[in-house]
Amino acid sequence: MKEFFSLGLGLAIVLSAGLACAASDQGSPSGFQPAPIHVYRAQGDVRVSEHGGGSRQLSSGQVIRQGTTVTTAANSKAVLMLANGSSISLMPESSLVINEFQQVGNFDVRGSVMSEGKSAVPGEVVPMSAIAVEPSYSKTRIFLREGTMYVSVLKLRKKSYFYTATPVGVGEVLGTNWRQRSVSNPANNTASAQIAMQRGRMRFRPLSSRNNPNKPFVINNYEQYSINGRFANRQAFDSAFNMFSNGFAADMEIADLQMDMSISEDPIRDQEFDNDFAANLPPEASEQTNLVGEPLPPNHDTNIDTDPFFTGDQGIGNVGTLGAGAGGGGGGGGSGGDEPTPTPTPARPAS
Question: Phi and psi for 218 in degrees, rounded to 5?
């Protein structure tokens, strides 16, 4: 196991005025609006809670949106299908916060499970498995508080972003498939994350301070990294969790309290990882799920403006380099490359 660095960081979470907490359910002037997330499968005890509210049982075929937390008990799983073509498989004893999921246009996700047993949805539809590029611009921020998830993301448009948080840092998705694990122990104020990329790349920014920043690094195909942190006290531990649970934005500032962190590369077996990924995020989820939507209006992207998390970074430190504006292999994240060739927009079936 190769360790890149281990250092003490001055750390406290300072939430600036521009911090976007759990995103509002109101459409924005830029054309973004909350988009649906369909539960392709809920197996066992799967629950969903609104921010600040109680929890309820989650069942296959239901729809959730941003501002919710999905939790799985022992021997329980959930597969979520997002209207931008992304899919998330949440494993047993896991907790996922969906801080933000918004999209330009009016799209929906439907399939045999969502149609109460019907094998098809009336009208013209496009199976998710046939789509290579997301159908419209989207903004996604999620936080895996605890447990394991497998995620597949379509190639993102240039002005879209997909950020995935852990208790010890945030990843910008520049590729398509990855496994993510989060482990925390409030008793000794420790937290850790493990990111394994199957295809594509992720740019990961560990927690840092203004005086001693941890520069982002890139995780490439079939690479796996562990990020381990020990907070100085329970207050610092809770501050980090609260920040990621309530939302995180490009202008957050971190300073003052103490934290130790180490980052290391772990070995990974390609074929075993491929088999593991296929078993836990089954291909039939996208094959049996249809994406339907209304055609986008002309010049719909004129006022699109997103707030990339890594604004101002001039290259990447520690592990790899990725110049500003470079596209990810197999995906174009928030700072992705040229605009991809648009995927034909599926038509919404008549009601």
Answer: -105, 135
Asked if residue 309 lies in contact with residue 334, where contact means CB atoms within 8 angstroms, the answer is: yes
Cβ-contact 146, 182 below 8 angstroms: yes
What is the rounded distance in angstroms from the CA atom of residue 245 to the CA atom of residue 67? 10
User: What per-residue string of b and e applies to 274-307 under the rule 16 or more CB within 10 Å gives b?
Assistant: eeebeebbbeebbebbbbbbeebeeeebeebebe
Point out the least confidently predicted range of 22-26, 47-51, 301-305. 22-26
**Alpha-carbon distance 43 to 318, whole Å?**
40
Pairing of strands 94-104, 68-72: antiparallel
CA–CA distance, 297 with 279 (Å, rounded to integer) = 39
Q: Which residues of 37-47 are buried (b: 16+ CB within 10 A; e: fewer)?
A: bbbbbbeeebb
H-run or E-run covering 291:
strand 289-293
pTM: 0.78
User: d(Cα 335, Cα 313) in Å, to the nearest integer?
Assistant: 11
The average pLDDT across 346-350 equals 36
**Nearest C-alpha neighbor of 167 from the set 334, 39, 11:** 11
Where helices occur in the chain by DSSP H, the ranges are 234-246, 270-280, 284-287
Q: What is the DSSP string of 179-229?
A: EEEEEEETTTTEEEEEEEEEES-EEEEE---SSS----EEE-TT-EEEEEE
Residue 156 carries which side chain, given as an amino acid letter?
L
Of 31-40, 202-211, 236-245, 335-344, the poorest mean pLDDT is in: 335-344
Q: Is 146 exposed, middle or buried (0-12, 13-18, 19+ CB in 10 A)?
A: middle
Neighbours of 52 (CB within 10 A): 8
Angle, CA of 186, 188 and 190, to the nearest 5°: 70
Amino acid at site 171: G
Would you say 201 and 171 are in contact if contact means Cβ atoms under 8 Å apart?
Answer: no
pLDDT attached to residue 259: 75
**What is residue 277's three-state secondary structure?**
helix
